[in-house]
Amino acid sequence: MMNKLADQKSPYLLQHANNPVEWYPWGDEAFNKARELDKPIFLSIGYSTCHWCHVMSHESFEDPSVAKLMNETFISIKVDREERPDIDKVYMTVCQVLTGSGGWPLTIFMTPDKKPFLAGTYFPKESRFGRIGLIDLIKKIQNLWENERDELLKGTQQIINAVQEVADEQPGNKLDKKTLNIAYDQLSMRFDDKYGGFGKAPKFPSPHQLSFLLRFWIRSNDTHALEMVEKTLNKMRMGGIFDKIGFGFHRYSTDQEWLVPHFEKMLYDQALLAIAYLEAYQATNKELYAETAREIFTYVLRDMTSPEGGFYSAEDADSEGVEGKFYVWERNDLYEILNEEDAQIIEKVYNIGKGGNYLEEATRKSTGKNILYREKSLSKLAPDFDMTYDELKMRIEQIRQRLFEYREKKIHPGKDDKILTDWNGLMIAALAKGARILNEKKYSDAAIKATEFILENLQHSEGTLFHRYREGEAGIEGYLDDYAFFIWGLIELYEATFNPKYIKLALDLNQKQIEHYWDDNIGAFYFTSDQSEELLVRQKEIYDGAIPSGNSVSMLNLLRLSFFTGDTELEKKAEYIGMVFAELIRKNPVGFTHLMNALDFAIGPSYTLVIAGNKEMKETVKILKEVNRHFFPNKTFIFRPADEFNPKIDELSDYIRYFDKINDKPTGYVCVDKTCKTPTNDIEELLNFMDPRWK
Length: 695
Fold this sequence. Notes:
- This protein is of the alpha+beta class and 695 residues long.
- It has 4 domains: 11-167, Glutaredoxin (3-Layer(aba) Sandwich), CATH 3.40.30; 177-320 and 416-595, Glycosyltransferase (Alpha/alpha barrel), CATH 1.50.10; 327-409, no CATH class; 607-690, 3-Layer(aba) Sandwich (Glutaredoxin), CATH 3.40.30.
- Helix content is 49%, strand content 11%.
- A 5-stranded mixed sheet has the order 1-3-2-4-5, sandwiched between helices.
- β16 (607-613), α26 (618-629) and β17 (635-641) form a beta-alpha-beta unit.
């Protein structure tokens, strides 16, 4: 028997389509049924690659006795948080207000008119160790609903008021350099000097924090900022959080050392980490960072790309019902797959132990399995094998390929193959940066293909965006993040290809975003469109968590588009975003590090760089390549085909129409904080205008 999730597109909802629980998708049918039967709502929110969502499902939602109790007591609704982040954000705030914390699975108990009265996350099937079990909790709610409903619902309005207060803005004066300094100080205080990263376990990559530190290093010349970035990137690359065999990063580390990951892989992590490694490569010219970015792209283009060019959302932590089973190794298996010499090399390089280094989470006892990680760099390990660095590197790559081929025959973790506009926008931005910085056309080709996929499949005829695509069907009205992240990708794609089509698309979508998401009363962007479903509260997101907020990304987008077009109204809107949340940000700027990147751009120095010339000329190619090699984060990069009025670019960026070649050579025009330097044909002079430290 299939329940009412059977015709949904979400892989997460489909995972629960044959539960004995009579699940409904979010919608009028469920709420009308709850009113008709006078039952409360059991709302369960999660996502397809969530380990504890799987645990709660296997424990409770697949159990006929629990399902019977749920069906008698509730109308039960399942929501995929990745499809409906608007619902998730509202009710996650409810959970945080009521319990002081949150997470997934998110469990909400509420009235048929969507008013919450109780919230939590994972509930075990039965009560244990002082934690109430789902069976006992349902019986208690059933009794209260039938016999003491007024008492049960007495606090619902206070809960709603508290959620609305959390969503309230805290306007203030313009943010300034002092805010950047405080953010840096806060990161410095939280920095783990031994293992890199920030704080203790669990430890998340948070790549936008690293991007901020790179910008702060450029601004202040504080070498500690760069040291924090490099330590973190190196330790993550060596740790178990990075998949040594198939590449790509796992979601986060359960320990302080980056050794034991939570094994799911998310598209947005790959995109944001690739950007961080690419920027570190520009800043340091260290090949390891470029290599890591290339490996991330190898994983994404191999395993996370649809035939049509869109990017899938995630891969599960679990396979065959066991977390991490696909990724861990027994020592004996390595000796069976490899010859003895190669097995000994991999054993020493990746710290393989007979007893295993992967401990069972509950008991902390050895599983006999091993996570591949490194404690030493290959250059330090090479003498142990009487090899040069290059010889050891080549040997390990040969071994990796054999292990990869073996692993491919195993049962793979589940793949969430829905295609989300916002996460695709992040991947387009990363690939476009990769194409430009690494001079790799295959990355811009992949970014272009994904962009065309979105335009063909996830855009309304009137130009607005859908959020989700799966199995030939687009659906769900776009959210702020869909516009902000896709616009970011389009800006990066323009700078990688200099095709004016992409900057025109960015400007058009930016106008749609302003039209449907901008708050005309106080400023900044709502998360949902003015045409979206009305929930308890229409929220504005500004916190930069695992993913930067739509407002933070939009602030930087607006600044870059303003510098591109000369439209100061866009710059004013960017300033309003900072001011709308100013006091909230000042209290804890480390929570808004992508917005700090935008603030760094706004404070300046910021640059407009225009290259006028012919793309085919060797001198032009040389200039473009040299500029892309260096870390100039606060620049807008425009290429103007010279010798004639070029309507495609000149009409978008009106002020550049008089920029032309000088001395029949490609010419650079650099403006610093809207003050222009002397046009130059000389690469060294141009780079010196951009940053006197470039040498």
